[in-house]
Write a structure and sequence with these properties.
The chain has about 170 residues and is mostly beta strands. It has one helix and eleven strands; from the N terminus they run αβββββββββββ.
């Protein structure tokens, strides 16, 4: 005796029943999700002004050693939209600029063989490096001139520019 003829109608009936379940209220959507996405924007300034470091004392070429003439970089980070119960924000700072030809970790200046090294806290802060920082207690940022040991520097004015980027996550 062939049982195949009896099972086909049962399989067909079960398939039709399963296809009809959503229409019977089993599997209808009964949850909704909604929220608000925020990405607080941060600005890095010196009391609302452009960050500027002026090496006010004259720099003796023979005394440039990566320690002498260290200058503090005055900066504040302000972020709007940090509110929200229970939100804990972390911050990272990134140093962006053009590397000096003689050292990829040092910022290039307008004078060949002269660069600017940044320090964040007590450590070197290299170009394209990102550091985690405490928003409530920002570390000290310093700039110091450095030179290529083989360079013959002469009396000259110099300049350099870079970006300090603050991001919350």
């Amino acid at each position: 005796m062939n049982n195949r003829g009896r099972t086909e109608p049962v399989v067909l009936a079960l398939s039709l029943l399963l296809a009809a379940l959503p229409r019977l209220g089993l599997g209808q959507e009964n949850m909704q999700f909604h929220g608000r996405l925020i990405a607080p924007a941060c600005t890095v300034t010196d009391q609302g002004q452009f960050l500027e470091v002026a090496f006010k004392s004259q720099i003796a070429i023979s005394k440039i050693n990566g320690e002498n003439y260290r200058q503090q970089v005055p900066y504040q980070v302000e972020c709007e939209g940090l509110g929200g119960a229970g939100l804990v924000w972390r911050m990272k700072l990134t140093f962006k600029g053009t590397p000096a030809d003689f050292d990829p970790k040092v910022l290039k200046t307008s004078v060949q063989g002269l660069g600017i090294k940044l320090r964040l806290g007590d450590e070197d802060f290299d170009i394209d490096e990102t550091r985690l920082v405490n928003l409530a207690d920002l570390p000290k940022l310093e700039a110091v001139p450095v030179k290529d040991l083989g360079a013959k520097l002469s009396n000259n004015r110099f300049s350099a520019s870079a970006s300090l980027i603050a991001e919350l996550y």
